[in-house]
TrEMBL record:
Organism: Thalictrum thalictroides (Rue-anemone)
Coiled-coil region: none
GO biological process, one term: oligopeptide export from mitochondrion
Primary residence: membrane
GO cellular component: mitochondrial inner membrane
InterPro entries reported in the protein's UniProt record: AAA+_ATPase, ABC1_TM_sf, ABC_transporter-like_ATP-bd, P-loop_NTPase, Type_1_exporter
Protein name, entry field: Lipid A export ATP-binding/permease protein MsbA
Amino acid sequence: MKFMKGFSADAKMMYEGASQVANDAVGSIRTVASFCAEEKTSFDNVFRVFFALTMASIGISQSSSLAPDASKAKNSTASIFGILDRKSKIDSSDDSGMTLDNVKGEIELRHVNFKYPTRPDIQIFRDLCLAIHSGKTVALVGESGSGKSTVIALLQRFYNPDSGRITLDGVEIQKFQLRWLRQQMGLVSQEPVLFNDTIRANIAYGKEGDANEAEILAAAEQANAHKFISALQQVGTVQYLF
């Protein structure tokens, strides 16, 4: 930035000097002619001055345009490194925590209070208590914004409750290894996301590591998706797996 500032100042001075020479030679041509001094301001010299002025103006305009871009890049870089250096409160790559050999699926929310970090002035849950027993089908019903999706986000530990406890089989979910905890859940969101890849790859993304064809086919059948996938145009019963 200092170099660009100094360079622009020097170029401005040279530009002004060249402009004065051209202005004197062209604007005062009668005076030049009266002194018979045309040879001191010949056409090729005037052309060189105009050409130099044109190139200098282009150079100055291009160099000056870099200054705001450089400033934007500096500010953006600071923001990016700030995000990269920030330590997440919920780190999905953290392998610490316990796991269970056998999951029954008893879920309980005890006196949960929660506000989204981006909206700390809006209370989402206040003293929420909810028990979901293993093998039971439970529906959360309410108008848009009532907190149905927030319950799932808390179960998946995208957020931690401000107070209260959420347990799985009697164990507080913060004590589990996060990756393991999320692998115990199957989620079909209201607006599913499909990556720009094959159907096989999209299904395989649900399992860490490589999933074999039998596992992918079983997952599609359990999700009641195998029939309509196979019925798609140019997709056969086995072809969609590859």
